[in-house]
Amino acid sequence: MSTGWDPSAGDFPWPPQNATAMSSFHSSDADIRWDDPSILNIGPEFPQEETKRASVDLTVILNPRPWQIATGSFTVNSLPLAGDFIEIGGVLLTAVNGAFARDEFDISSGNLTTIASNIATAVNQGSVKSLGLSEAGASGPIVFLEYPVDGEEGNLVTLSSTTAAVSPSGTSLTGGQKGDTLFFGTLELKANGSRTSGENNFDVSGTIQDVAESIKDAINDSSNYFGLFTAGVSSNVVTVYVAEPGGQGNNIPVNIGFGDSTAPITMDFSNGYTAGGTGVFCPGKSNTQWTIVGVNIYRSDTSQRGPYFRVNRVPVASLFYRDHTNLVEVIDEVIPWEGGWIFRGDAPNARSWRMRSRNTPIVKVGTNGIPADSEFDVTVKINGKEVPVRAVFGPKGEIDLDLRPVWDPATETMIEPVIPEENYSITLSYTYMKGNKLVNTLDNRHKVFYRLTTVALDPSGTSATGLVETPLEYSEPISPMNSEKLDYIWREAIRRNRWILEQGGERVKLFIRRVTGNPCDCVWDARLEEYSKQPLNYCMRCYGTGWVGGYEGPIDIIIAPDDNERTVTQTANGRRLEHSYEVWIGPSPMTSQRDFIVKQNGERYSIGPVRRTQVRGLILQQMFNIGYLDTGDIRYQVPMSPLERLPWPETRFSNPEDSECQESAPYPVGYDYQASPMMSDKPSIPEGRQQRGRTPVWQNITYGGKGNGKE
Predict the structure, then answer these.
(1) 3-state secondary structure of 70
(2) What is this structure's pTM?
(3) What dihedral do alpha carbons 467, 471, 475, 478 form, nearest 10°?
(4) Residue 341: φ, ψ to 5°
(5) pLDDT tens, 617-666?
(6) CA–CA separation, 555 vs 597, rounded Å?
(7) By the number of CB atoms within 10 A of the CB, which of 223, 301, 356, 365 ranks highest?
């Protein structure tokens, strides 16, 4: 499900629009269609508040102090002798007559210009450059040295020579200077003698108005990676804007680092951070900048939040995909004498002959992977002649031959069965299920969901595969059980229903029973599992579900409030609490019978049959009875460990995706996010006199403001 690459919003292609999953009038098929993601170019999905960009003013008072690089030189005055050396930052470069090694220079030419060039080569290819002490170039008999980075550090690199034939410019590099630097968040902009595109600097020569203009140009230069900001200028004042409008642009720190703290101030910010941004900005979606490869389809058999697995092998380049239970017919598979038989007349008690197919499970033709259990589901031939079959166990691909004599009424004789022998040709024809089964049994079809992601070429090269894909959290889950798309009228109806629950409902945790995954080993015999359909109800690996882990969750939901009596009854096993009542929730997450919930007081309740209110085939609401579980029930052993990592105090959204354009991806996957237990925290109220509740609603009623604890 995850590729290990976690991009930020905007660094990935958006998923295809108008994705639809529908039944193809076969329970074993689901047709999925979508629009071409390469031409996606739409506006924001949510109505926006009026937005304003955050900004800060920078006033240029004097010409800033530029950063400068330390430099020096060596002059070749005459021919040095072999063994003479020069020193740069403690590294010795030795003159040699002929072949030279690292940190040596050749003097055999006798030409002063050539010797200067050889010294520059020794600097650039030897220890001096590799240690970051200097870089060199030559012009005539002069070798020019330059420290790799600007600042005062280069002035510490010493220079010397043992011969007057090669003289240094001084005892060290000189001229290195620490200049003024502008800081915007984590970005830096340095003062320089001239502005170079892509090097994050600005020109300090000219008037202070010229300096302000150069700062504006540097911020707006796309090569300088200042895409978070834009700038405008008026005289000597530069106004720096956060590029994305909205309140999220506020509080980005800005600062000035002065090269000489004793000199007069050259520049001044109007504030220590950006301010003035208002509203919430929700950007549109466009894939026009991406080279689209195709679409990946992911399926969950449990809930909208997963877990998901990919159903296609390679990205689908078309606009249609049929997810189905793949049944493959095998004709006349040869059953080898060695390895193809479980019993060859030597089975205990029955002395039966039992063969094994190469592929499993064997299923009934024309079904959604129903295991074969009839002699009519397979065909066995011995030496080309069909022979009767006594039993078929499809899950393991096991077939028992019927070796009982058969009465022939035509001849009134018993026909003896054909007993397999080593040199006989024995073949088996059958149909088996290849790959994953599309879940449709009982009420589990309502929990099948798909998510579609767009796959594109990765221009940055940060992905190991060379591809980049939409994170699942940004792909809307779709269900083949919904026969209609949600429109704005019923979306508002669902929102108002949820508002009612937020005002008076009870916040609980939902655990969804697994129906797929890794089978638990508490059922050690396949035949026992097939016939009894019941794993160990005290297993601590699957909690009686038959699948490792047992349940997905916990998931934050709000249910209708408790309105029924609690009765203590006397039973044959002692006294027990009986407490059940009907509740309702919205369309998500999808629940079914045998899921369970956990209340904040620790009580656990089983979910009964679910009634779903629909309009035009669109599920709007779920209603079901919940019944109290005795504390000895295995479901009390299902852990709630993720809740232990929650900070306190903190009030969080129960559904973070309902907070438009903030706090969370729009369609979360997984169960890491937890909203409760919660505790309100109003920043504007001092800790010493603040009252705390457990929900955003309580905080809104008591203090007003947003339920997330922000002003």
Answers:
(1) coil
(2) 0.64
(3) 90
(4) -120, 140
(5) 888 999 999 999 998 889 999 988 655 555 555 556 666 655 555 545 77
(6) 9
(7) 301
